[in-house]
């Protein structure tokens, strides 16, 4: 649900970027969606499709989604696991369940291509 | 964002600070879009590297809210849970226990009605209801509006402890900082012990985990130890408490935790 309001904010930002660059259409938008940022990629895509269909500026805009890696650090032996995929259940080295995380908690607008 | 400052919208990006309603705060707005002009403007398309966070506007507003709470020496707490976990009931009992010791204010977030605010008002503390019009979470701008509305309520001046009851939802509120000092996530015994595993983001960003309705433990399969260890997996530094509003069990530890937060905040302010 909140993905929709985030996409709305994104479109506002894209519109002012287009205005500043004398562009009339957004061709491609590259987002970086951290696995821990609380945003469901499918819902974000869905929101993007719905809202982009409503305005000529976003006609056929391509949405590229990149998923950055997260570093999971074992609280017992400090072993690190780096992955963009699912959160590991436990430390691969010692089996500890308590892992701290670093990175992957942001939602970034990385790059915009416009014409 | 704020009614009185006239700044147009969060995406209109300018740094400014301003005074209104007797306090000053700054809005950090980012203007980080790169202007890459070392190419010909005749080309049809143009690529701009941006790298701005979609959370930036909300986070900046949240920081402004937190600065404001620090300035007035109030502790702000963001209560997050599924609908029906016992947030409002917890607040009712907490207010009755603490209102002679400290000044309490409440911001209620609900999709539609103001029933929770009525329940709180009946306990004699200042409260405002924010109806989100169906939205699934509060955000920092709504919270900002909320405390300005509270300022108009009798008994709010000098508030020590501000509760913000978020919209009943264990997912979305976790993504939006409000400017709270601590985020408290509640799970009631009937909901089962697997919530931390299912909602790692919510538990990962919280400071405190409250297991509520412990009077119902005899009737539900809710191994406390499992719930605790699952929660610690999501967040090794989480504080965990259990209580029942019905029997009062565990309430003393909860009240002491609140007293501690308020005392620490007063100390910071004096220092
Ligand atoms: N058995 C039991 N029921 C509770 C307790 N706390 C709240 N409830 C009940 O749970 C229901 C939902 O409570 P409420 O405070 O409105 O939940 P909220 O939606 O999180 O604000 C109400 O019927 C309460 O009476 C408790 O400690 N024990
Ligand atoms: Mg409630
Ligand atoms: Zn949502
Ligand atoms: Zn290990
Ligand atoms: Zn203000
Ligand atoms: Zn402003």
Automatic annotation (TrEMBL), chain A:
Q: Where does Zn(2+) bind?
A: 74, 77, 91, 94
Q: In Gene Ontology terms, what is a biological process of this protein?
A: protein maturation
Q: Which residues bind Ni(2+)?
A: 2
Q: Which Pfam families match?
A: HypA (PF01155)
> Which Gene3D superfamilies has this protein been placed in?
3.30.2320.80
What HAMAP family would the database entry show? Answer: HypA_HybF
Q: What family does the entry list?
A: Belongs to the HypA/HybF family.
- What is the name of this protein? Hydrogenase maturation factor HypA
* Native source species: Desulfopila aestuarii DSM 18488
Q: Taxonomic lineage of this organism?
A: Bacteria, Pseudomonadati, Thermodesulfobacteriota, Desulfobulbia, Desulfobulbales
In the UniProt record, what gene is named as encoding this protein? hypA
Automatic annotation (TrEMBL), chain B:
Residue spans of biased composition, Basic and acidic residues class: 12-43
Q: One Pfam family from the UniProt entry?
A: cobW
Q: Which InterPro entries match?
A: CobW/HypB/UreG_nucleotide-bd, Hyd_mat_HypB, P-loop_NTPase
Sequence ranges assigned to domain CobW/HypB/UreG nucleotide-binding in this UniProt record: 79-241
Nucleotide-binding as a keyword? yes
Give GO BP annotations, semicolon-separated. protein maturation
- Which UniProt key words apply to this protein? GTP-binding, Hydrolase, Metal-binding, Nickel, Nucleotide-binding, Zinc
Region (Disordered) residue ranges read 1-43
Query: GO molecular-function annotation terms?
Result: GTP binding; GTPase activity; nickel cation binding; zinc ion binding
The similarity annotation says:
Belongs to the SIMIBI class G3E GTPase family. HypB/HupM subfamily.
State the name under which the record lists this protein: Hydrogenase nickel incorporation protein HypB
Organism (species):
Desulfopila aestuarii DSM 18488
């Amino acid at each position: 649900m909140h993905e929709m309001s985030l996409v709305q904010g994104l479109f506002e930002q894209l519109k002012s970027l287009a205005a500043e660059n004398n562009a009339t259409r957004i061709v491609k938008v590259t987002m970086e969606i951290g696995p821990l940022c609380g945003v469901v990629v499918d819902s974000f895509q869905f929101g993007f499709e719905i809202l982009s269909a409503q305005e000529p500026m976003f006609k056929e805009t391509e949405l590229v989604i990149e998923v950055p890696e997260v570093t999971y650090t074992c609280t017992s032996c400090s072993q690190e696991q780096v992955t963009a995929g699912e959160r590991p259940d436990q430390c691969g080295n010692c089996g500890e369940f308590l892992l701290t995380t670093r990175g992957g908690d942001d939602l970034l607008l990385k790059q915009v291509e416009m014409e | 964002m704020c009614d009185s400052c006239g700044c147009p919208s969060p995406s209109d990006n300018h740094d400014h600070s301003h005074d209104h309603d007797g306090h000053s705060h700054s809005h950090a707005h980012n203007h980080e879009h790169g202007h890459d002009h070392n190419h010909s403007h005749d080309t049809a398309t143009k690529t701009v590297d941006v790298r701005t966070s979609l959370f930036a506007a909300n986070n900046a507003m949240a920081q402004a809210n937190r600065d404001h709470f620090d300035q007035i020496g109030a502790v702000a707490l963001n209560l997050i849970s599924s609908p029906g976990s016992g947030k409002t009931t917890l607040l009712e009992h907490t207010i009755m226990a603490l209102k002679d010791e400290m000044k309490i204010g409440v911001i209620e977030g609900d999709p539609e009605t103001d029933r929770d605010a009525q329940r709180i008002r009946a306990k004699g503390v200042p409260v405002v209801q924010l109806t989100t019009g169906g939205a699934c979470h509060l955000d920092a701008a709504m919270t900002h509006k909320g405390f300005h509305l509270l300022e108009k309520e009798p008994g709010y001046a000098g508030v020590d402890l501000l509760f913000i009851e978020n919209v009943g939802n264990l997912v979305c509120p976790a993504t939006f900082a409000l400017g709270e000092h601590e985020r408290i996530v509640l799970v009631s015994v009937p909901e089962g012990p697997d919530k931390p595993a299912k909602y790692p983001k919510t538990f990962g960003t919280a400071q405190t985990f409250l297991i509520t309705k412990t009077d119902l433990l005899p009737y539900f399969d809710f191994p406390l130890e499992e719930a605790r260890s699952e929660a610690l997996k999501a967040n090794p530094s989480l504080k965990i408490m259990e209580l029942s509003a019905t029997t009062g069990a565990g309430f003393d530890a909860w009240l002491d935790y609140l007293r501690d937060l308020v005392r620490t905040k007063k100390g910071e302010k004096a220092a």
